Amino acid sequence: MIPMSATQISFRTDASLQxxxxxxxxxxxxxxxxxxxxxxxxxxxxEHPGHLLSHxxxxxxxxxxxxxxxxxxxxxxxxxPAHAEWLGASWRSDAEQTRLALQDRPTDWLIVDHYGIDAxxxxxxxxxxxxxxxxxxxxxxxxxxxxxxxxxxTSDAEARYRALVPAHCLLRLxxxxxxxRPEFDRVVPRPRTGAVQRVFVYFxxxxxxxxxxxxxxxxxxxxxxxxxxxxxxxxxxxxxxxxAALGWPKLQVLDSTDDMLGxxxxxxxxxxxxxxxxxxxxxxxxxxxxxxxxxxxRADSLALHRxxxxxxxxxxxxxxxxDWTDALARALAxxxxxxxxxxxxxxxxxxxxEHRHELLQLLHCHEPRSLAA
Length: 373
Known about the structure:
This protein is α/β, with parallel strands linked by helices. The chain has two domains: 8-177 and 351-370, 3-Layer(aba) Sandwich (Rossmann fold); 183-348, Rossmann fold, CATH 3.40.50. The chain contains 13 helices and 13 strands. Strands 3-2-1-4-5-6-7 form a seven-stranded parallel beta sheet, sandwiched between helices. Strands 10-9-8-11-12-13 form a six-stranded parallel beta sheet, sandwiched between helices. Helix 6 packs parallel to helix 7.
């Protein structure tokens, strides 16, 4: 790999009880690898309730907090992005605070992963960075970027963005471009017969509907099954889920884990939502029962369902314990279908290791207009 000793990377991303943790976590996955190559990485995040600034610091990175804004949150529409309120300030205020944060921090790459930021903000930060990268999932607003990454599973990925970015912007699109943690490089999905003995459950850090609790209640109808239920760092229903698991020794509830890969690989079926965890499940060839817990998960949930890599049960707000019980019963009764789902899932993120290595080298490029060369 190309040495990264002189490269300075700044991330502008947020986590909160509303936004969830996924944006920060996928940026951390990228930052860890860049740091291992010698880059200096820093994070700029607004101090929303549920922010992860202390976690970013614990991972060894500089974490710069933007104070909560006293001004009213911008509302979507009238030229504002659909998720404008997630920024917690007007784009002008946020851009100015970010400019000040970067004033004495030379930046080779500013990497933006935020649904509330669009081309206006990005253009305002151009004099604070040599190059600008955007990580997006929505294709619902213009960007002033040199490089854009969208890991969505869509048939018209390039057409979605070409009118939203400058002509020179390099597009890296599709689930094969997903930036997974390096431990997923070594995974060889095991053959799966469709028989189910162990279940992996993870609904992310923003499980406001207590889907983990519903899944646990459903699992009690199948006492022969073992299950690993991972809650995430700030699960809003942690105590209730732990209480519900008392007296059920085969149902293990974990507040967090350093072995997500091992738990997924050992499981025969997964229960969860889409986002980064969906691509991780695909990397290990784990068939999944999923639901839609956020608007940005909808396209991937339905696409994985159509592809046959997962079964989508619908919107989280509409589901009950009984829906998860029925879905598990179907999975147990149809091992051939489950084995086919596993085989399809194993193809979805094919090539992700090579593409991630290419991305890391692109982030060392010193001439933005030559990125596509």
